[in-house]
Amino acid sequence: MPKIKGISAFALQIGLYLSVLIWMTVIVAEPVPGRSSLSDADEDSPLSEDYWFSPPKVWNFRRHVTRAVAASECWPRVKFGLLESSAGCPNGAWKSGSVRHLLRSTSSVSSQNYLKADIASDSVTLHFCMRDTEPSENLEEFDCLHVVNEPTFPPGSYCLFNGQRPNVYERCPAGFYWSAVGVDDVGHDGNRQYGADRRDIPTGEFFPTFSHYYFCCRNDSSPSEPVTLPIAQSFILLPLNSERKCQEITGVKARMFSLFLDTEGESYFGHPDKQSAPYAATEVVIEGGGSCSGDRYGKGLKLHLCYYSKS
Fold first, then answer.
1. Beta bridge partners of 158
2. Considering only CA atoms, which of 126, 125, 124, 129 is closest in space to residue 96?
3. β pairing state of 157-162 and 210-219
4. Buried-most residue among 18, 46, 66, 160 (CB within 10 A)?
């Protein structure tokens, strides 16, 4: 009987060894991208040594193809947001959400081709892309987890929407300063989401008749000096009020357009604490067509926006 047990244990070890060997064979025998199998390679055109020793793709633990990417192809993993463009949110880990404002019928956007916004006779719904800093199984995001250098925002002259919790709205990514915009709605929206426990809209305070949006802006380089940001998909940034010029970004064209929100008379913009701090390019439009700058009250808000795309 002991001998039989010994034989059984040996057979079990052999079985486990063969199982591992078969599993490894299946993994290695995956087809080369672009071919149904390795045997499809033409004998006169063998795979180069560069392919075998410096493959452009590697297998991760889920057997998904992971590209070798540069940090410039990845958005920083910090809390911030963008207005959603007509092309949608960038690839990777983002949450999409929207905020509806009850406004007058003259609200408008200068180019419908750039911004995703629902403009009705009595309201404007803005759509946002909020950076998700939590681990993601999105393939593009998995690629970016393996970059050598963690991506950061470059010096420049531009603004983002803040993505922090409302009680820490003054906390921005390194190099940015916070500012604010207040939207005074014409109507009363008792169903509005307040945003305190939401991560799919910008940092702010959202009341039935008034909303505060918080921004993160920087002004540590000329907007004419090109910077590098991910350009796989179109996106929108806000220029600085002091510059009123789109930040140049390598590889894409910048087009400035505007969004006019026909609000009540107590909308505002600027920096509540320091007048010299950078803030988003926004005008308070006075009833009758004029405009002013600074922390002034008026009859509407005009936001200047920059749309970036490869074409």
1. 218
2. 129
3. antiparallel
4. 160
Longest alpha-carbon distance in the chain: 102
Pair of tokens at residue 59: 């297998």
Closest by CA to 228, choosing from 281, 152, 306, 160, is: 152
Task: Please answer whether residues 130 and 201 qualify as being in contact, where contact means their C-beta atoms are separated by less than 8 angstroms.
Answer: yes
Q: What is the 3-state secondary structure (H, E, C) of 79-116?
A: CEEEECECCECCCCCEEEEEEEEECCCCCEECCCCCEC
Q: What is the pTM of this model?
A: 0.73
- Tokens representing 290? 């004029």
- At residue 63, the pLDDT reads 45
| Encoded amino acid at 16, one letter | L
249 vs 39, higher pLDDT? 249
Is residue 229 a contact partner of residue 158, using CB atoms and an 8 Å limit? no
- Residue 288 zone, left/alpha/beta (φ > 0; ψ -120 to 50; rest): left
For 82-91, write each residue's pLDDT tens digit.
999 999 998 8
Residue 51 has pLDDT above 70, yes or no: no
Residue type, 292: C
pLDDT band, residue 199 (cuts 50/70/90): confident
Contacts of residue 58, defined as CB under 8 A and 6 or more positions apart, other chains included, come to 65, 66, 68
Contact 155, 175 (CB under 8 A): yes
Q: Are 95 and 200 in contact (CB under 8 A)?
A: yes
Contact by Cβ (8 Å): 84, 129: yes
Q: Please state, as a whole number, how many other Cβ atoms lie within 10 Å of the Cβ of residue 107.
A: 22
Give me the pLDDT at residue 97, please.
Answer: 92
